[in-house]
Amino acid sequence: MMAHNNNSGVAVHLLLFSLGTGEIVGECNFTNIVRGPFQACHLGFSLAKRFEGQGLMREALSSAITYIFDEIGLHRIMANFRRENVRSEQLLKRLGFEREGLARSYLRIIGVWVDHVLTSLINHIRER
């Protein structure tokens, strides 16, 4: 189950709730929404460790991506991950994201600049 807030127009923040307990178990964020000729955003997501491996994030992101493409009208979603994050890599591949390259020293995490793999998903329905 998801709830969202899109008041700013530059981001969509979605929360994933457990149907059984109502607790927040994860989130996904579509940020840096750019309109004009670009029509794109960045995707970030996280899930509580104990819920990993159950297909919950794939289910949530499938619905969220459809919303971003169909309702928000974006053309491109970009998602980046650290090379050692195999779970994120596999999830993004299953969702149809394609690898576009490697960004060296992309983000500073806990005081260290780390490389990230760059991927994207194109809304081919809106290409016309």
TrEMBL record:
Gene3D superfamilies: 3.40.630.30. The keyword Acyltransferase applies. It holds the Pfam family Acetyltransf_3. InterPro entries: Acyl_CoA_acyltransferase, GNAT_dom, N-acetyltransferase. Keywords: Acyltransferase, Transferase. Residues 1-119 form the N-acetyltransferase domain. Coiled coil: none annotated. Belongs to the acetyltransferase family. RimJ subfamily. This is GNAT family N-acetyltransferase. The lineage of its organism: Bacteria, Pseudomonadati, Pseudomonadota, Betaproteobacteria, Burkholderiales.
